[in-house]
Amino acid sequence: MSGESDCTRTSPSAGSPSDSELLPDRPKYVCTLSPDLVTKAREELQEKPEWRLRDVQALRDMVCKDYPSLGTCLDDAFLLRFLRARKFDYDRALQLLVNYHTCRRTWPEVFSNLKPSAIKPVLESGFVTVLPHRDPQGRHVVCIRPDRWTPSNYPITENIRAIYLTLEKLIQSEETQVNGIVILADYKGVSLSKASHFGPFVAKKVIGILQDGFPIRIKAVNIINEPRIFKGIFAIIKPFLKEKIANRFFLHGCDLNSLHQNIPPVILPEEYGGTAGKLDISAWNELLLASEEDFVHDFSELVLPCDSSPHDLLVFV
């Protein structure tokens, strides 16, 4: 990193244009947050509307100076995701952005051909979906059902790709950037042979992405119907979890009343003791598949160039 003072790093000079200011014009950012969410972002994320674009410019300058070969999108809205995910700490936001790109480079089995049409079989299986209603805190609930996966049909990396694309779609919303998400994982019917596909290598990669390589706030992970073997699965996962994230795991077993203390029945499907009707995966599948062109366009801009130096890839993996 450069020898600039903290003052210089946190407040870009107004005297001369930065390298990033000489780049082509970018889409103008328009805030879509409600007044209540603006207040929430200020209180929880240290986001000040009057300084927002200054903060984005500071992060943009850091990218251009310290990681000029990163090949990242530098639009205001895109960089804001990373600032919000790290409470407007410039250095942490920059590291998250670099990690985000490095994850794509170091796990090609997941990140090649990264578009919704490529994971259509996973979506049709119902392995991952998003409930139609947000919870009282304004958070989407991502529902994951491993029992819907048949390992002989496709490898576990396809499931991970489907989860990743789901998160990419959700994080396009500024409301989700501020409120975060909740995960509901139903382990009913998961056998030891199926669980064996989620070994230490995969566990470390997935946890690394969710904790340090993606700009989303995971506020709770609710596990339901976990079999006895889940203790073994969790034993594999836990060493890679930060304490803050580990404390957000809730194991409910078959106790729906326990689940309802975290996720109200009014937004849950009947399968989980809720009153929101049968679980319907079609609406989310249609929404994600209809976004094909957005993903193709966005990800074509987010590929690391082949001549990236080792300095550009100093991250957690």
Automatic annotation (TrEMBL):
InterPro entries tied to this protein = CRAL-TRIO_dom, CRAL-TRIO_dom_sf, CRAL/TRIO_N_dom, CRAL/TRIO_N_dom_sf
Q: Please provide one cellular component term from the Gene Ontology annotations of this protein.
A: membrane
Chain positions covered by the region annotation Disordered: 1-27
Please give the CDD domains that the UniProt record associates with this protein. Answer: SEC14
- Could you tell me the superkingdom of the organism this chain comes from? Eukaryota
Fetch the SMART domains from UniProt: CRAL_TRIO_N, SEC14
- Stretches of Polar residues bias are at 8-19
Q: Name one GO molecular function term.
A: phosphatidylinositol bisphosphate binding
What positions does the domain CRAL-TRIO occupy? 115-280
Pfam family of the protein (one): CRAL_TRIO_N
Protein name (Swiss-Prot/TrEMBL) = Alpha tocopherol transfer protein like
Species, as recorded: Cyanistes caeruleus (Eurasian blue tit)
